[in-house]
Write a structure and sequence with these properties.
Shape: globular
Distance between the termini: 48 Å
Radius of gyration: 19 Å
Strand content: 15-25%
Strand order of the largest sheet: 3-2-1-4-5-6-9
Structural class: alpha/beta
Largest sheet: 7 strands, parallel
């Protein structure tokens, strides 16, 4: 219960990872200020309001990533800020407007608010393995991909990897801004996050599992770096609480090809109709 008497902010509080961060923060005694783009939509808020401790110590605020200054009053008075809000989806009509602007401008907007107050001791940024591993460097079995790696924006542009581009641009800009302004920042870079959902909607990473069980005839020929959402949430809190935490942390429990995921699902749920090729 190390959070008693401390106030922290979680952006995009009703999202997949953020909801678990809020849950664990409340369990540890923190007072949590959660930001939402669409305040008052109970369908998107009820799972947060139902958490233990929410009635006493969870306060929800409206804040928009692209509205300059909208986080000023929310982060003022907070000791820690968990910046988790960032769009993650694959079907895009306008990559710049749908992904890149909210990720890049939104993160700088949030950090700008943190720089205006003296109360914020540390910012924990939710980045991604997408900002680590996407470049033209060889990945032979002897190569270790770690926190010293960065994705290459030009490589992402050439291959139309828009989500990856949004994450690396946002993280690069965040480190520059944090260093220039003297903000103590730690970056969390998880792989494909799976595990129980607190929110009522299916998020993009969980959809990879859903796609395997909803009648698909095939699975895509790809391996992902997977990690459980509870581990990711706990890592965020440790990144704030441990004074020694610094730099970037890659969160990967294991790398598994989708064919192996199908095998696991088949063993756990023999009645499911799963793709065989």
């Amino acid at each position: 219960m190390s959070g008693i008497g401390k106030t922290v902010c979680v952006t995009g509080a009703n999202g997949y990872i953020a909801s678990w961060v809020v849950k664990f923060l409340l369990q540890r005694g923190y007072t949590v200020r959660g930001t939402l783009r669409d305040l008052g939509n109970l369908k998107k808020e009820n799972h947060l309001l139902a958490l233990d401790g929410a009635k006493e110590r969870l306060h929800l605020f409206k804040a928009d990533l692209l509205e300059e200054g909208s986080f000023d009053s929310v982060v003022d008075g907070c000791e820690g800020v968990f910046h988790i809000a960032s769009p993650f989806f694959y079907q895009l009509s306008d990559p710049q407007a749908d992904l890149i602007d909210p990720a890049l401008k939104g993160t700088l907007n949030l950090l700008g608010s943190c720089a205006k107050t003296s109360t914020v001791k540390r910012v924990v940024l939710t980045s991604s393995m997408s900002s680590v591993a996407y470049n033209s460097r060889p990945r032979t079995p002897d190569v270790i991909v770690d926190e010293t790696w960065f994705s290459d924006p030009e490589f992402c542009k050439e291959n139309k990897l828009w989500y990856q581009l949004s994450k690396i641009l946002a993280e690069n800009a965040s480190w520059k801004f944090a260093n220039d302004k003297g903000i103590d920042m730690v970056s969390i870079n998880p792989g494909m996050v799976i595990g129980p959902l607190l929110q009522p909607t299916v998020n993009a990473s969980a959809a990879h599992i859903l796609n395997l069980i909803n009648g698909s005839q095939t699975y895509i020929n790809v391996s992902f770096a997977w990690v459980n959402v509870k581990d990711v949430a706990n890592a965020h809190i440790q990144a704030f609480e441990l004074p020694s935490a610094n730099g970037r942390y890659c969160l990967v429990e294991r790398v598994v090809h989708l064919s192996e995921v199908v095998k696991m699902l088949g063993k756990l749920y023999p009645s499911l109709r799963l793709p065989e090729k």
